[in-house]
Amino acid sequence: MEIGIDKIGFYTPHQYVDMNNLAVARNVEPEKFTIGIGQEEMALAPITQDSVTLAANAALQIISEEDKKAIDFVIFGTESGIDHSKSGAVYVHKLLGLKPQARAIEVKQACYGATAAIQMAKGHVALHPESKVLVLGSDIARYGLNTSGEATQGAGAVALLIGANPGILALENEDVYLTNDIMDFWRPIYSEQAFVDGKFSNEQYILFFQKVWEQYKEKTGLQLADFEAICYHLPYTKMGLKALRTVIDEAEEQDKERLLENYKTSTQYNRRVGNIYTGSLYLSFLSLIEQQERLKAGSRIGFFSYGSGAVGEFFTGVLQPNYQAHLNTEQHAKLFSSREELSVEQYEEIFSNTLPTDGSTIELDVKQDPAPICLAGITDNKRQYINKLD
What pLDDT digit, counting tens, does each position of 368-384 carry? Predict the structure, then answer.
């Protein structure tokens, strides 16, 4: 029995800032952002969107009534959780109208969370082949205005439906992983913003990739030539390229060209969204399969997942026959084209408009947010969510 990704959905907020304009406002050469780190636009979440609503909006695109009957497990991967106790998955479960006979949990390990969720989902489906699992990777990356990490912020979510006989990608079983207790990126519970040792984190990302890649080759005997593409977790789009370049000379020239071309294709969506932590690897995969028309069924895709702190994993999947029929390429193109560009001043104002942390009641204007699912306010310390389609 094959298990893997049956459907994939994506959502990003309706507002963004152009990185050229941000660079000028910060007295930085625009090429430092657009070429140096490889970002063109940065999605910005309004106050009416959080990790829960982003995830629910991503899932809303792909979940049919038939899927609702089969989903008995919702796993929410995030490092932007909204409650220390209650999982974001429970909120999404209700907002989507899923059946009560389901598990709903949240998992956390920096940007690795959604990968852990997929592996957990795979095990669940192996035991219950009739089941489907909804996996969510949803985050809002915030480092603060005028900080060193500002240009790598972003907001968005990816939703994946995991099941038997998948329509898009069958996951293979020869995965490898690595854990090491390091402090390259972290966010204590008392802080709204993350702390990062940027140079160290970049070094560890590359080191983890090299180690799991060596493990994988030793375990399977496969080489770069056996891959049509490798997708990477992308805190910024240049990061994955730095890792790929450390092993690319293992390949023949035609394989190098293919892998580098497909890497570039896999970054197109991320360039326009920014870092979405747990969802960024799967946004990269989505960009690849929706934008690279030359991909064929039977192609092997590699995935490198990295979550600071740190856990890394390399795993693989094979594209399924007629996988294109399961994609929402036009819908995602419309999502991008309908977004509103903000001035830097507007971005700074929206970024600084945050929810109260003292228990105050607040009512939010959801009419300004075109998303179907929004945060409508806070009452009695409880977030109030609405689905406009209900």
Answer: 999 999 999 999 999 99
Q: Which residues neighbour 366 within 8 Å (Cβ) at sequence distance 6 or greater? A: 48, 374, 375, 376, 386, 388
Is the pTM for the entire model greater than 0.90? yes
Q: DSSP H helical segments within 77-197, as ranges? A: 88-95, 113-127
Give 338-350 as a DSSP string.
TPEEEPHHHHHHH
Q: What is the pLDDT of residues 267-310, one digit of tens each?
A: 999 999 999 999 999 999 999 999 999 999 999 999 999 999 99
Query: Could you confirm whether 79 is annotated as catalytic?
Result: yes
CATH 3.40.47.10 applies to domain 3-168+327-387:
yes
Whole-number pLDDT of residue 194: 86
Its CATH architecture, for the domain 171-322, is 3-Layer(aba) Sandwich (3.40)
User: Does 233 participate in catalysis according to the annotation?
Assistant: yes
End-to-end CA distance of the chain: 37
3-168+327-387 and 171-322 share one CATH topology?
yes
Give yes or no: 250 in active site.
no
Q: Which of 233, 290, 313, 374 is catalytic?
A: 233
CB distance 263 to 247 below 8 Å: no
Give the span between the Cα atoms of 92 and 138, in whole angstroms. 11
Instruction: Give the C-alpha separation, 154 to 271, whole Å.
Output: 10
Per the residue annotation, which of 14, 111, 124, 326 is the catalytic one?
111
d(CA 265, CA 206): 21
What residue ranges do the domains of the chain occupy?
A: 3-168+327-387, 171-322
Q: 251 is written with which tokens?
A: 């390949």
CA 376 and chain centroid, separation:
24
